[in-house]
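Try this one yourself first.
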C-alpha cells in the first residue's frame, strides 16, 4: 500500500513525514523544499505480533508495512505546470490513497504561500488542480474510446465512455470522481485510469503545540465540514510534536505523550484511518522462524490470502488451518487450542478474518 502525503508548501507536510517514518526528510521554511518525493516504509503497529513472538519463541517478527511518499508542495496552476506541477501530478498518480495535510494554526514566523491561513481555500486550491488535471485526461480518453467503440462495437469501451462522461460533468462543476457511485464493472475500469480525484483521501488537520488540549479550533472545524461532505476521514494532530516524539526512547515517549494527553501517535492514527479507508486488515502466521502480519483486503478468500505469501500457495491451495488470535492466546499454545477444538479446517470459500492465525496446506 502506497500513500502520498500532499499539501501546499509550508503546511507541516514534511514534518509529519519525518514523524511517521523517522526518515529525516528535509524541512525548511520556503516553498518547494521537497522536490523529489521522499519515501519511507513504515511498520504497522500491531501488539499481537509481540504476544505471538513470546508464545512461539520466534527468531524474527515482521509487521505489515505501509509506504509513505512525501510529495512536493503544490500551488495554484500546477495542472498547467506551475511550481513543480507536472512532476507532482505524476508522483501522485502512483499512490493508492492521499493524506492531505492542511495547516490549522497561526504562526507569523512560518510563511504561508497564500499569505494567510484558510483551510477551505487551501483544500480547494489542491482539489481544483487535481480536478483540472483529471478533466484534461478524461476528455482525451472519452474522445479516443468513443471512436474506438463505434469502430469495434466493444461494449466495455462504451461503459467507460458513459462512466467518464459522468465524471467529466462532476469535475466541471468542481466535484471529485471519488464522490460518485460506481457499478462493479465501472470500479474495475476506473482503476485503469489512475484519476487523481478518484483516490480516497484522509485530511490531516495540523495544529500547533498549544492547541493539543483543545484541538477543535475553527480551522479544524472547517476541515471536518469539507471531509463530511466528501465522506473523507480526518486526523487531527500536531506534526511538530509528533516529530519531537520520534527522537525520544520508548519510555520517554510514553511519558511525554501522557503529559500532553496524547493517547495514540500520529502514525497509529494514520494507520488505522488508512486501513479503514482502503478496506484493509491483517492476518497472521506464526512459528519458531517467524511471526508475521500480512495485509489483505477485507473479504479476501483463503486461496488469495495464501497467494500473498507466495503464488504457489494460491495455485496449490488445499486447505487452511485457522485459529483466531483470541482463541490462540486464551489457550496459550496452538496445540492446546487444537485440543480445545478452536483450530478449524477451512476450504477455498473461507473468507479470512482480521487476526486469524493461519497455517496453509498446499500442493507443490
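Now uncover the answer:
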Amino acid at each position: 500500500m502506497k500513500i502520498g502525503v500532499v499539501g501546499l508548501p509550508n503546511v507541516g507536510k514534511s514534518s509529519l513525514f519525518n514523524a511517521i517514518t523517522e526518515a529525516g526528510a528535509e524541512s525548511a521554511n520556503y516553498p518547494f523544499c521537497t522536490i523529489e518525493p521522499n519515501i519511507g516504509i513504515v511498520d504497522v503497529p500491531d501488539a499481537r505480533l509481540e504476544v505471538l513472538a513470546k508464545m512461539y519463541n520466534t527468531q524474527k517478527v515482521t509487521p505489515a508495512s505501509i509506504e509513505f511518499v512525501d510529495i512536493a508542495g503544490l500551488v495554484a496552476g500546477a495542472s498547467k505546470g506551475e511550481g513543480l506541477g507536472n512532476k507532482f501530478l505524476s508522483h501522485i498518480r502512483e499512490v493508492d490513497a492521499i493524506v492531505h495535510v492542511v495547516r490549522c494554526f497561526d504562526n507569523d514566523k512560518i510563511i504561508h504561500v497564500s499569505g494567510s491561513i484558510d483551510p477551505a481555500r487551501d483544500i480547494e486550491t489542491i482539489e481544483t488542480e487535481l480536478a483540472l488535471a483529471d478533466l484534461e485526461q478524461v476528455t482525451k480518453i472519452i474522445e479516443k474510446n468513443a471512436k474506438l467503440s463505434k469502430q469495434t462495437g466493444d461494449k466495455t469501451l462504451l461503459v467507460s465512455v458513459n462512466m467518464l462522461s459522468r465524471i467529466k460533468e462532476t469535475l466541471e462543476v468542481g466535484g471529485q470522481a471519488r464522490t460518485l457511485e460506481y457499478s462493479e464493472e465501472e470500479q474495475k475500469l476506473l482503476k485503469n485510469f489512475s484519476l487523481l480525484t478518484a483516490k480516497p483521501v484522509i485530511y490531516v488537520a495540523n495544529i500547533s503545540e498549544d492547541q493539543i488540549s483543545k484541538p477543535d479550533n475553527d480551522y479544524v472545524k472547517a476541515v471536518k465540514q469539507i471531509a463530511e461532505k466528501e465522506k473523507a476521514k480526518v486526523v487531527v494532530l500536531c506534526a511538530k510534536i509528533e516529530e519531537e516524539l520520534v527522537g525520544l526512547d520508548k519510555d520517554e515517549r510514553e511519558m511525554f505523550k501522557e503529559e500532553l494527553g496524547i493517547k495514540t501517535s500520529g502514525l497509529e492514527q494514520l494507520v488505522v484511518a488508512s486501513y479503514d479507508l482502503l478496506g484493509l486488515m491483517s492476518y497472521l502466521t506464526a512459528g519458531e522462524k517467524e511471526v508475521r502480519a500480512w495485509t489483505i483486503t477485507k473479504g479476501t478468500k483463503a486461496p488469495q490470502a495464501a497467494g500473498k505469501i507466495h503464488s504457489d500457495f494460491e495455485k496449490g491451495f488445499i486447505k487452511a488451518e485457522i485459529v483466531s488470535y483470541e482463541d490462540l492466546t486464551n489457550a496459550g499454545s496452538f496445540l492446546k487450542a487444537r485440543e480445545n477444538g478452536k483450530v478449524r479446517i477451512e476450504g477455498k470459500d473461507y473468507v479470512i478474518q482480521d487476526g486469524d492465525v493461519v497455517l496453509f496446506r498446499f500442493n507443490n
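Discussion: The first helix runs from residue 13 to 21. The first strand starts at residue 2 and ends at 6.
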